[in-house]
Design a protein that fits this description.
With 505 residues, this protein is of the alpha+beta class. The chain is 26% helix and 29% strand. Helix 2 packs parallel to helix 6 and helix 2 packs parallel to helix 8. Keywords: 2Fe-2S, Iron, Iron-sulfur, Metal-binding.
């Protein structure tokens, strides 16, 4: 299920010989998405030796499956921050995102990359959502953004009122990532693809354990070690449990589709603030503009039938854009932080040698670049005053304690539910495209049927022992505790787990 951006793109994993030749670097960056590659480039420009480690391929996770909106407006996000934090924190967050947006746009201009300047809208689909939109407008004014209230918009879908922020941007993220890789390698940086970082140990230097992703189900697979003075974890959610970031965020899955549409397509960017969420933009292509529609989001592993919501999203597009023909379908994972603000900085307080960047809450196009600016400045001895709003450890997180308590109570419930529910589940082979977990706690199995192939694996997530659930839209197993995801054969798709589901016995 490649996204519109990754369709037709071929990436070859680094050979075993290529991995063996890499033994040390000043900085190892884990994750080749927008945050990791931008950080790597900024640090390499300063003369540091850099190795980027990517478990799959460039843009394989969130960045290559985003909507590609580069906006400071961000739906209801600013209103949520304003509701929990003071004006100074709100303005610092907006400043960081503005600098991230502007850096990305300048990079596109300097490297001849295509992007589109478009207005962005946060809007209500009906009268019930207007109060949220008014909160967004008030937050924009408080943050010093020149956002306008609009009662109407030239769109074919319900629009009860909204906020418009002019002159934002939208991109195809893959050419941007490719340009970062090309420049990184010109500065002597190294990219390892198809290589998973499994652990980081030591203190000076750090030892990063690597394992080739191909064949990693074999627990005897050989590991390779690279030493570094600094490690940056830019993996969506940190692959190390130190810092308990998995307990400070909620993993969210959302879905996108691209359509060929006869006639004119809505030109600006739109995101509803009420449910069900609807995201709209266009994307220029060789054969004409495509419509991109997103939504149908849910907490990872906790939706009984995500396919139903995705089907409804497609119906919504067909209803409001008659004649629309779907050409692509994809999904992405993002992490909602308990206090609404990203976590960018030390993995543990005062641990400057291992840094993290996470919690972008679907706004990685700006937050990811802002994080890269903050991290590279930290590594090189500089300072970004606005970076306090992005701190990985800060008193402002106290505002998220009630949310954290509720979140982790739900995790506990999902843990218990996962071990009990299979007792009453059918042990029969499921239908095509479905998966089921059944059996007693001491002999549970997860069985799925995809393309006529029946596969059975252990349903126990190797991260913290949660029992996975089936996503019938993505055809994947998902852990409802902290969002680890696995292919039907148990292969790890994304963490915080660092290995796949074991074969069923």
């Amino acid at each position: 299920m490649p996204s519109l951006w990754t369709d037709g793109r071929l990436e070859a994993p680094t050979s075993a010989g290529g991995i063996d030749g890499v033994t040390a670097a000043d900085v190892v960056v884990v994750g080749a998405g927008i945050t990791g590659l931008t950080t790597a480039l900024l640090v390499s420009r300063a003369g540091k030796s850099v190795v980027v480690v990517e478990a799959r391929h460039v843009g394989a996770a969130t960045t290559g499956n985003t909507t590609g909106k580069v906006s400071v407006l961000q739906g209801s996000k600013l209103a949520s921050i304003a509701g929990k934090h003071g004006t100074d924190t709100l303005r610092a967050y907006v400043t960081g995102n503005t600098e991230g947006r502007d850096w990305l746009v300048r990079h596109c201009e300097e490297h001849g990359l295509s992007y589109q300047r478009e207005d962005d809208h946060a809007y209500a689909q009906n009268a019930q959502g207007l109060s949220t939109v008014r909160d967004v407008h008030a937050a924009c004014r408080e943050a010093g953004l020149d956002a306008q209230w609009v009662d109407e918009a030239d769109v074919p879908f319900p629009f009860a009122g909204g906020v418009r922020l002019r002159d934002q941007a939208q991109i195809d993220p893959i050419p941007y990532l490719s340009s970062l890789v090309a420049e990184l390698e010109r500065h002597g940086g190294i990219l390892l693809q198809g290589v998973r970082a499994t652990s980081v140990s030591g203190s000076g230097p750090l030892r990063v354990a690597l394992r080739r992703t191909a064949g990693e189900q074999d627990t005897r697979a050989a590991e390779h070690t690279v030493t570094a003075q600094r490690v940056v974890l830019a993996t969506g959610i940190p692959v190390l449990d130190r810092g308990f970031f998995f307990a400070r965020m909620e993993p969210k899955r959302s879905y996108c589709m691209a359509f060929d549409v006869p006639g004119d397509i809505t030109r600006s960017m739109y995101l509803s603030v009420d449910s069900p969420s609807r995201s709209v933009r266009y994307a220029p292509g060789e054969t004409g503009d495509k419509l991109i529609v997103g939504g149908a989001g849910h907490t990872v592993g906790r939706s009984s039938h995500p396919k139903n919501a995705v089907t409804e999203l497609a119906r919504w597009a067909a209803l409001h854009f008659p004649g629309a023909v779907q050409t692509h379908y994809w999904s992405a994972q993002d992490y909602h932080p308990i206090d609404e603000l990203p976590y960018v900085g030390p993995l543990l307080p005062k641990m400057e040698n291992i840094l993290v960047a996470t919690g972008f809450d679907k706004w990685g196009m700006t937050n990811g670049v802002a994080a890269a600016l903050a991290l590279s400045s930290r590594i090189l001895g500089g300072r970004m005053d606005w970076a306090a709003a992005f701190a990985s450890w800060s008193p402002h997180e106290l505002t998220g304690i009630p949310t954290a308590l509720q979140l982790n109570m739900e995790v506990g419930f999902q843990l218990a539910k996962g071990w009990i529910s299979p007792l009453t589940a059918s042990s029969e082979v499921p239908e095509e495209g479905q998966g089921v977990v059944s059996g007693t706690p001491w002999k549970m199995t997860a069985t799925s049927v995809v393309d006529g192939v029946t596969r059975t694996v252990s349903p126990v997530c190797p991260h913290l022992g949660g029992v996975v659930n089936w996503n019938d839209s993505d055809l994947a197993w998902e852990c409802p505790l902290h969002g680890s995801r696995f292919a039907p054969d148990g292969a790890l798709i994304e963490g915080p787990a660092t290995r796949g589901l074991t074969a069923s016995r």
